[in-house]
Design a protein that fits this description.
elongated, 5-stranded antiparallel sheet, 12 helices, alpha+beta, 338 residues
């Protein structure tokens, strides 16, 4: 276990290196921080931190830089989440207010996160499999043709055309719409099949075929293997950090183009808490020089998707974690109110 003083030295090294982009020496640390000890003592502490693998010497200069292990300890024990300032909170509200649909919400969120953190922002669309039914609308387009509109609790809208086996009157359509919504509104998708299985029996014999056809289309919509979708923004921000990536940023850019890689980076939605993966903790080799900060978002306190940022390991972790958390909370509020 490191002593409190050595933890403070590590914290100071991380803060200075993130801020200056230069390896940090003992003299600079004692000048910039109130460590209460001499440069010689700080040099000794730095030697211990280096032996333990928390800092490293990039070249023959006296300065040291944090390692992945050093950043990990900083994030786990030393870094509080930096709260957003009042102007930053107002900017979030201003930027996200007025979004007209889910695509607009996701697009605005990506741009906002990229601007706030100056990193690459990644936002996952809410998955249908984790959603509940908000409302089902049935619209008559012709005597034997119906449009089914499924609206989820996350604001996602799915539309399907239903060709009925026989004409279906407006009164019967209104009855089916009312019965459907009374049974499944507010219920999880997984519960719907059992809730509607006996619904055709509530209708006259000549209408049961049509009711069964509408229900079949609804269930296909619910269980459809809908592709997980992501939106990414701010990739150009990486060019500001060229010297933070060994040799070239090409492997990072190539990894960011692979959707499967990004979904794995964000992590399982079930784990809705803040996650920070640093350097070699990222399984994809092309991302070993990056850190990923992600968190779940959703309405009603339950995560339906993830959002986060990707940047170099030399990252302002407290500020980035604060921005990601604040944006996720506000997007969750929008979904709850939409």
């Amino acid at each position: 276990m490191l002593s409190e003083r050595r933890l403070e030295v590590l914290r100071a090294i991380v803060q200075d290196y993130v801020g200056t982009e230069e390896p940090v020496g003992s003299k600079a640390l004692t000048e910039r921080h109130r460590l209460g000890v001499s440069p010689a003592t700080v040099r000794n502490d730095m030697a211990v931190l280096e032996d333990e693998g928390y800092i490293a010497q990039p070249h023959t200069s006296a300065g040291r830089i944090p390692t992945d292990k050093g950043y990990r300890l900083f994030v786990d024990k030393l870094a509080g989440v930096k709260p957003m300032t009042a102007p930053e909170k107002r900017a979030i509200h201003h930027f996200l207010d007025g979004a007209v649909d889910l695509d607009d919400v996701v697009g605005r969120t990506v741009r906002l996160l990229a601007q706030l953190t100056r990193q690459v922002a990644v936002v996952q669309y809410p998955s249908l499999t984790r959603s509940t039914v908000r409302h089902v609308e049935l619209l008559s387009l012709a005597p034997a043709r119906v449009m089914l509109v499924l609206i989820t609790d996350t604001g996602r809208v799915e539309q399907r055309m239903v060709d009925c086996p026989a004409p279906f009157g407006e009164a019967s359509l209104a009855d089916l719409r009312a019965r459907l919504n009374s049974r499944i509104a507010g219920r999880r998708f997984a519960d719907v099949p059992q809730l509607v299985q006996d619904l055709p029996d509530a209708f006259e014999a000549e209408d049961r075929g049509t009711v069964a056809t509408v229900l079949s289309t609804l269930l296909e919509t619910l269980v459809e293997e809908t592709e997980e979708r992501l939106m990414i923004g701010g990739t150009a921000n990486l060019t500001r950090f060229g010297h933070d990536f060994p040799l070239t940023i090409r492997p990072v850019l190539e990894a960011l183009e692979e959707q499967v890689v990004l979904l794995k980076l964000l992590g399982e939605v079930n784990d809705s808490g803040m996650a920070v993966r640093i350097g070699h903790e990222n399984a994809h080799e092309g991302l070993n020089s990056t850190s990923v900060v992600s968190v779940g978002y959703g309405s009603g306190g339950e995560a339906v998707a993830k959002l986060g940022v990707v940047g170099p390991t030399r990252m302002d972790y407290p500020g980035t974690m604060g921005a990601v958390r604040a944006v996720a909370r506000y997007v969750g509020q929008i979904l709850a109110e939409s």
